[in-house]
Design brief:
Blueprint (H helix, E strand, L loop, with lengths): L2 E4 L3 H14 L3 E4 L6 H6 L2 E5 L3 H7 L7 E6 L5 H7 L4 E5 L3 H9 L9 E7 L6 H13 L4 E6 L6 H4 L10 H5 L7 H7 L2 E2 L2 E4 L10 H14 L2 E6 L6 H6 L3 E7 L2 H14 L5 E6 L5 H8 L3 E4 L6 H6 L10 H12 L1
Parallel strand pairs: 1-2, 1-3, 3-4, 4-5, 6-10, 6-11, 7-9, 7-10, 11-12, 12-13
Antiparallel strand pairs: 8-9
Helix pairs in contact: 1-5, 3-4, 6-15, 9-10
Length: about 325
């Protein structure tokens, strides 16, 4: 049962049930809390009407997340009952109806967030964006995936994937919004092609709005099996974005200048756990790359024939069974 509403109040019922219907989620309405204890534990979201809050306190149901007390202009005394049952908030309807709509939008989504993988170039022109696109394309064949363009000065991941004409919200549009964004709303709002969604910019003047990113990334992880962040190596907020990643892939050619630049980047991040090197052909070997950077080599990607032509045709970098496809498979299946 997605939503449990405990109330005998007609006004509370009439305020909440239509919102559930509009969100497309099933709601069970119970007027006797004692008969709803089984559903209390199973429901994804529990809404306790102010009229039954004291009765719920007397029953002492097990503590659980996602419990809210709802009512029309609730009295101050109800806050004591809300604390007693472990409610997260007291929702004043109809003023707080938009907040409740957003909470309902996430009902039915995953209970735990999806995996977030960051990809950053250890040196300029390392091919990090190409790898990020390949990872997203490969996983999108299997499950909902979001590719987040966090490189304001890049070409745009939508262009590499041939999705620049797809309708949907971009960073600029999200920066103009406020409050919590539902996972489903984000997943359905960004430009998509089948299971693959992209979040990038629409104009030439771009700036990653950090407060917006803080709001969006948790929703992205709740609504997708995999979120891939294409990171900018010289962005001031790189460190914060990296901390939001479950895994970090640092892409570098195995040349002396590239490895020197990569070592400096790794030192500034201060993160070695869950981070690995993806190396491209150069004069040095994997052992040299690991010694210089302090990171393990987790994949090696050879040059892919016809890559530029595939991108120019709007197919994206993942074509056939080339080096990028093999690397994407090994990197995502290994975790």
């Amino acid at each position: 049962m997605p939503v449990l509403l405990l109330t005998r109040s007609g006004p509370v019922h009439d305020a909440v049930v239509p919102l559930c219907a509009a969100a497309g989620v099933e709601v069970e309405v119970g007027g006797d809390p004692a008969l709803c204890l089984a559903t209390w534990s199973r429901a994804e979201l529990v809404l306790v009407g102010v009229d039954l809050a004291e009765q719920v306190v007397a029953l002492a149901p097990p503590r659980r997340p996602d419990v809210h007390v709802v009512g029309l202009s609730p009295a101050d005394t109800v806050f004591r009952a809300a604390v007693a049952i472990g409610a997260t908030s007291v929702v004043d309807l109809p003023d707080a109806a938009p907040w409740l709509v957003e909470a309902l939008a996430d009902v039915g989504e995953r209970a735990s967030p999806g995996r977030t993988v960051g990809v950053v170039g250890g040196a300029g022109g390392a091919g990090a964006t190409t790898l990020a696109c390949a990872l997203a394309q490969w996983h999108a064949l299997r499950a909902p995936t979001l590719l987040v363009d966090a490189d304001p000065l890049g070409a745009g991941v939508d262009r590499l994937l041939g999705m620049e004409e797809r309708p949907g919200v971009r960073w600029e549009g999200l920066a103009d919004t406020a409050g919590r964004l539902g996972a489903r709303a984000l997943r359905e709002g960004v430009p998509r092609r089948d299971h693959l969604g992209v979040l990038t910019w629409s104009g030439l003047q771009r700036r990653l709005d950090v407060p917006t990113a803080r709001r969006i990334l948790p929703s992205a992880a709740r609504g997708h099996d995999l979120v891939v962040l294409d990171l900018a190596r010289q962005d001031p907020c790189l460190g914060e974005l990296v901390e939001r990643c479950d895994d970090l892939l640092v892409v570098t050619p195995t040349t002396v200048p590239a490895l020197a630049a990569t070592a400096r980047l790794v030192a500034t991040l201060g993160r070695e756990a869950d981070a690995g090197l993806v190396v491209r052909p150069g004069a040095l070997g994997d052992a040299d790359a690991e010694r210089v950077t302090g990171l393990p080599v987790v994949a090696s990607v050879a040059d892919q024939r016809g890559l530029s032509a595939a991108v120019d045709r709007g197919l994206g970098p993942l074509t056939g069974r080339g080096p990028l496809a093999r690397a994407a498979r090994s990197l995502l299946e290994a975790a």
